[in-house]
Each structure stands twice: as structure tokens, then as C-alpha cells.
Amino acid sequence: VNVVESDESFTLQLSPEDPNAVIGSGAGTATVTISEDSNDVATFGFNPTTYDGEEGDEVMVTVELMEGTLEREVVLNVRSSDGTATEPGDYGVVNMNLMFDESTSDNTFSISLVNDVNVVESDESFTLQLSPEDPNAVIGSGA
User: Fold this and answer.
1) Please, what's the b/e burial string for 4-37 (b: 16 or more CB within 10 A of its CB; e: otherwise)?
2) Confidence (pTM)
3) What are the two backbone dihedrals, phi and then psi, of residue 82, each rounded to the nearest 5 degrees?
4) CA 112 to chain centre
5) C-beta neighbour count of 122 within 10 angstroms
6) DSSP states of 54-83 as a string?
7) What is the average pLDDT value for the chain, to the nearest integer?
8) What region, left, alpha or beta, does residue 76 occupy, with left being phi > 0 and alpha being psi -120 to 50 degrees?
9) Average pLDDT of 90-108?
10) What is the distance between the alpha carbons of residues 60 and 65, in angstroms, rounded to a whole number?
11) What is the distance between the alpha carbons of residues 105 and 70, in angstroms, rounded to a whole number?
């Protein structure tokens, strides 16, 4: 199971059962750390992967955890990139971080589409890019 979690540790302590046994100074305890398995990844993506809206609308966009389990916070960055639509004349710029944790399986945010009053133009588009800030988070194909 893909579980993205923080490193965990525990302490071992030696204690002699024989009253004549002595543990050397500083040698009676040891700490064991269990590191995050680099194969445990959480996969994220946009759902759906295409959105439509009219000028003047607020488009609601959803990013979700598609596969895996989280036991710690993971941060994803969402950024807009101009296509035939350009910011700020056609849409409100997007550059934000989304936080996910064990209680968050999706995040929704809005993008403002600018109403070009008295301007007749064809349909336009722009791209949203999703990138993980965490090496154990990946973006699903087509997201």
C-alpha cells in the first residue's frame, strides 16, 4: 500500500538482569529511525482534466488524491500558463499552493474569467500546471 508518512523512530534501552553486569556509559540506549520508503508515493491530478466557462464566470477547479494514502502533509503548486487566453486580460492569474493531509483527499479553487465587454473573439484557453513540492507526490498521467 502506498502510504506517504513522516520518518518514525523509537528508542532501545539495555538493562542488565545480572546485578554484576554493567552497561558502559552512553552505551545503554540506541535510537532506530524508520525512513520514508521512496517507493511510497501519492498520485494527484485534476478531476476533470478539462474545464469550460463563459466570460465573467468563476470556474471551480478540483485537484484530488487519485492513488495512495497520506499520513503527513503534502504540498502541491498550481500555476497558470498563457495559451490563446492571457492573464490578466482573459483570466485571473493562478499561482498557489494546495495542502493535502490524512483528512484531505481533494482541494477546489476558483479561477475568474474576465468579461471582455464589447470585444468579439473566439474561444480561448490557458493551461494549469500541477507540480509537487514533495518527492513522494507525483502527478498522474493526463492531469
Assistant:
1) beeeeeeeeeeeeeeeeeeeeeeeeeeeeeeebe
2) 0.69
3) -60, 145
4) 23
5) 5
6) -TT-EEEEEEEEEESEESS-EEEEEEEEES
7) 83
8) beta
9) 92
10) 17
11) 9
